[in-house]
Amino acid sequence: xxxxxxxxxxxxxxxxxxxxxxxxxxxxxxxxxxxxxxxxxxxxxxxxxxxxxxxxxxxxxxxxxxxxxxxxxxxxxxxxxxxxxxxxxxxxxxxxxxxxxxxxxxxxxxxxxxxxxxxxxxxxxxxxxxxxxxxxxxxxxxxxxxxxxxxxxxxxxxxxxxxxxxxxxxxxxxxxxxxxxxxxxxxxxxxxxxxxxxxxxxxxxxxxxxxxxxxxxxxxxxxxxxxxxxxxxxxxxxxxxxxxxxxxxxxxxxxxxxxxxxxxxxxxxxxxxxxxxxxxxxxxxxxxxxxxxxxxxxxxxxxxxxxxxxxxxxxxxxxxxxxxxxxxxxxxxxxxxxxxxxxxxxxxxxxxxxxxxxxxxxxxxxxxxxxxxx
Length: 374
Ligand code: MRU
Known about the structure:
Blueprint: E1 2-3, E2 6-7, E3 11-14, E4 19-23, E5 34-37, H1 40-48, H2 55-71, H3 80-91, H4 98-111, H5 117-156, E6 162-166, H6 182-190, E7 195-200, H7 207-219, E8 222-226, H8 231-236, E9 242-245, E10 249-251, E11 256-259, H9 262-271, E12 276-279, E13 285-286, H10 292-295, E14 300-301, H11 304-307, E15 308-313, E16 316-321, E17 331-332, E18 334-337, E19 344-347, E20 350-352, H12 356-362
Parallel strand pairs: 6-7, 6-9, 7-8, 9-12, 10-13, 12-19
Antiparallel strand pairs: 1-2, 3-4, 4-5, 10-11, 11-18, 14-17, 15-16, 19-20
Helix pairs in contact: 1-2, 2-3, 2-4, 2-5, 3-4, 4-5, 5-6
Bound molecules: 5-S-methyl-1-O-phosphono-5-thio-D-ribulose.
The site of 5-S-methyl-1-O-phosphono-5-thio-D-ribulose has 17 residues, from helix 2 and strand 11.
């Protein structure tokens, strides 16, 4: 995507410096800082501490982390046991987004059988790049698919502004380019459709306020930041035509894990008869799970992320305590929206209803695991 005239992605391999580079998203929107990932420790820290975040981006970072593991193997032999240990460490960095496991396993499965260490390293780097390109292309297609929904609403509204509400950041910053939830928005905007986005602030880390607002603004998309609690009110007053969110893990039966608060938006949309869409690449489906509430691991993060807010004052970046120092805080990072509240999935293959049958019709090649009741 373009930032102030410069083409940039969230992660890339610099051929000249032979280094993996990322945007340090903790610094946005105030500073665009690029950081090098040179070791597995760097990559694990970047994922854990959310220099990089968002399911597709975590997946690609995980893939490059396996490359870094191969590159830095202590004995130069890149033993299988060592790679598997490092892969486990990378996958454990954040538990909810299934893309992380997907990205790591994609690279691992291609290099374990290679015996020549140099070829192992080269292949790991090549496959990571291919995964990044695949996700870029999938997000572009999600944009094309989702555009048809926005076009339909725009026609129904006789060209009046299409009002979209989104939660967290499921934009290009959460991916490599285009985004998932934002891809149809960018496609509609680029086509000249009048569109406005309500951006949930997304406490505690403010991915909406900091990241979605920043990237929409850089692209010129009209948007307004609202508090996390405003969505219900907006929907009751016909100020939202559709909700589009991303997801960190969606079960084969259509239950959706996404940033904490997504479920409440889905409930409000349901009550107000407003379409609630989830945009995702196939890498975010967990084909092995069916019951999202029971089976999707929900990350709990440091309570200090709730107790302190980060911002910018005249002296630079600062952190401010906003509650009694001694109060406890519980930081659940994600929640699960049951499939029954989802109007449809926007995927690279098309749009489908949130049922196992419809999802599997779009992705027939994915294995159906033996179900307990089968
Ligand atoms: O904690 P984060 O910022 O990694 O959470 C990100 C989200 O919840 C996104 O909505 C999700 O990963 C979809 S990204 C296209």
